[in-house]
Design brief:
Elements lengths: L9 H27 L6 H5 L6 H9 L1 H24 L3 H18 L21 H14 L8 H24 L1
Length: 176
């Protein structure tokens, strides 16, 4: 399959960078709030699970050792994903990690018809909620390599391109 070069206009680059940065801010803020709040735990969220994997989420909340790991991964994962997205560093990796985390949240309490929750929902969405929307937006960030637009990935990709170019020149020189 032939690779196509996609060129974005300056306004498209700015829009993708803004999308990346705002999602990054959301992740970073949520992580820092959890880190700074003494005794924060995901147990309440996990115990209210009503989705298809509710038993797994309940087990996580009821197993103290596993819950401690979940709490730390959640706090620091949100923070590091947010930082990576905001500065555009390792955007494909941090964006993919963000998608996985959001989908875990989504599956814990999906907005499916017939599921009733102990906590009031923000609205009745019928399948699509804010977690799914944000995960989809992150997918756009990942597939467009939005970290290369006003981010550190631009610098990193420049180095890798120079490195690839140097390797190709070395291979060509050996072949002559």
């Amino acid at each position: 399959m032939k690779s196509e070069t996609v060129l974005f206009s300056p306004i498209q680059k700015m829009a993708l960078a803004l999308l990346r940065i705002t999602i990054g801010w959301h992740f970073l803020y949520e992580g820092v709030v959890k880190i700074r709040k003494p005794g924060w735990s995901a147990a309440g969220f996990l115990l209210q699970a009503r989705g298809p994997a509710a038993d797994i989420y309940h087990w996580m909340a009821e197993n103290p050792d596993f819950l401690n790991v979940i709490n730390e991964w959640n706090k620091w994962g949100l923070t590091l994903i947010g930082l990576g997205l905001m500065v555009g560093c390792l955007t494909r990796l941090t964006g993919s990690a963000g998608i996985i985390l959001l989908m875990l949240y989504y599956l814990c309490n999906p907005p499916f018809v017939g599921y009733f929750y102990s906590l009031p929902a923000e609205g009745s969405y019928l399948i699509v909620n804010k977690n799914l929307v944000e995960a989809t937006a992150l997918l756009v960030v990942v597939v467009t390599r939005a970290g290369r637009f006003f981010g550190l990935d631009l610098i990193l990709s420049g180095r890798s391109r120079r490195s690839d170019s140097n390797k190709q020149q070395a291979i060509a020189a050996v072949g002559e």
